[in-house]
């Protein structure tokens, strides 16, 4: 039996405060519902985003008192629609915030939470540096949201550069993986589409990546081009460079059909990494990272890690 799913990415602009963020998102959400969307996807930091030097400084509040979270929950309940809040800034430990995403059901209930694991600490040039971990505490659990429509894995922005996370989610049964983002323009122009297509192809699943668009208060610019990519790697929707609603219909039967043609998820194999002793000097620094990250006791397919409980399946918690 066919399994179509009508979705919409809300391509919002970065806003400096809660009120402006809600005023940006709610009209787009209403337009998406009016057009028939069953699930809405919002970008990273859709509750507000500012920058302060090399750090992100989004407006933050506790989960219980967060006005953007409560506003979107109320909208979901009123309009009977599911919403993936890409992420908002939530008060966290040690004075830092959590870059936290939510799955909201059509009664306004919180059905799942995901805290961004990989933080954007990069130096693109002497003039353009980012240090997300200065203000954000990382998460440590991968998350799949079980919904009536599909199993949806949740990642955020910089996570897109870590294929092992996407592999773990797909191996655990995710048919759709969302990657809400506020991707900066410079890296977006070079890498955004190719990374999204690669994650879809590698894992034979849909990738849905709503991305903020436009200047970030305090400095910087988000790339836009919210993407929906099918399991064959075809881009079926691209949001371009203006704020708005990006509609797509997902044919969820494609996930099984393409997985049968290229069953790479069933071909995961454990392996060991070795390096010769006479590595040229120019490779020494990267080799050190290899030895740190890829130690033999950690080399395995995604499946054993999931069985050990590092993947959290979000069902009504």
Nutshell version of this structure?
With 317 residues, this protein is α/β, with parallel strands linked by helices. Helix content is 26%, strand content 28%. The longest helix has 19 residues, at 185-203.
The number of strands is 20
Report the radius of gyration as a whole number of Å.
Answer: 19 Å
Biggest sheet, in brief?
A: 7 strands, mixed
* Classification by helices and strands: alpha/beta
Helix content: 25-40%
What would you call the shape?
globular
Task: Give the overall average pLDDT.
Answer: 88
Distance between the first and last residues' Cα = 30 Å
Low-confidence region ranges: 293-310, 313-317
Total helical segments? 7
List the keywords.
seven-stranded mixed beta sheet; 26% helix; alpha/beta
Give the helices and strands, then pairings:
Elements: E1 4-11, H1 18-34, E2 39-41, E3 51-52, E4 55-56, H2 67-79, E5 82-91, E6 97-104, E7 110-115, E8 121-123, E9 129-131, E10 136-137, E11 142-146, E12 151-154, H3 163-171, E13 176-178, H4 185-203, E14 206-209, E15 213-215, E16 221-223, E17 227-229, E18 235-238, E19 244-251, H5 253-261, H6 284-293, H7 302-307, E20 311-314
Parallel strand pairs: 1-2, 2-5, 6-10, 11-20, 12-13, 13-14
Antiparallel strand pairs: 1-19, 3-4, 5-6, 6-7, 8-9, 11-12, 14-17, 15-16, 17-18
Helix pairs in contact: 1-2
Can you offer a commentary on this structure?
The structure is a single chain. With 317 residues, this protein is of the alpha/beta class. It has helices at 18-34, 67-79, 163-171, 185-203, 253-261, 284-293, 302-307; strands at residues 4-11, 39-41, 51-52, 55-56, 82-91, 97-104, 110-115, 121-123, 129-131, 136-137, 142-146, 151-154, 176-178, 206-209, 213-215, 221-223, 227-229, 235-238, 244-251, 311-314. It is globular and about 50 Å long. It has seven helices and 20 strands. Helix 1 (18-34) packs parallel to helix 2 (67-79).
């Amino acid at each position: 039996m066919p399994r179509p799913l009508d979705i919409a990415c809300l391509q919002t602009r970065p806003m400096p405060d809660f009120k402006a963020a809600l005023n940006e998102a709610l009209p787009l959400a209403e337009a998406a519902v009016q057009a028939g969307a069953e699930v809405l996807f919002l970008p990273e930091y859709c509750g507000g985003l500012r920058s302060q030097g090399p750090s992100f400084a989004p407006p933050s509040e506790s989960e219980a008192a967060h006005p953007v979270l409560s506003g979107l929950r109320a909208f979901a309940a009123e309009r009977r629609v599911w919403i993936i809040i890409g992420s908002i800034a939530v008060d966290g430990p040690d004075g830092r915030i959590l870059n936290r995403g939510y799955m909201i059901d059509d009664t306004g209930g919180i059905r799942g939470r995901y805290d961004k694991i990989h933080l954007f600490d990069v130096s693109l040039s002497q003039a353009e540096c980012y240090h997300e971990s200065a203000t954000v505490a990382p998460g440590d659990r991968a998350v799949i949201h079980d919904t009536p429509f599909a199993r949806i894995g949740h990642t955020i922005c910089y996570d897109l550069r870590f294929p092992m996370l996407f592999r773990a989610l797909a191996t655990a049964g995710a048919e759709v993986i969302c990657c809400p983002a506020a991707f900066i323009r410079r890296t977006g122009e070079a890498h955004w589409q190719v990374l999204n297509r690669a994650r879809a192809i590698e894992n034979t699943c849909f990738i849905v990546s709503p991305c903020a668009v436009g200047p970030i208060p305090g400095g910087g610019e988000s790339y836009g081009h919210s993407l929906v990519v099918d399991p064959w790697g075809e881009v079926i929707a691209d949001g371009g460079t203006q704020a708005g609603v990006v509609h797509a219909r997902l044919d969820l039967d494609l996930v099984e059909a393409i997985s049968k043609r290229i069953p790479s998820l069933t071909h995961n194999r454990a392996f060991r990494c070795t390096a010769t002793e006479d590595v040229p000097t120019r490779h020494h620094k990267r080799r050190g990272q290899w030895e740190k990250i890829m130690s033999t006791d950690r080399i395995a397919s995604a499946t054993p890690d999931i069985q050990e409980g590092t993947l959290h399946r979000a069902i009504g918690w």
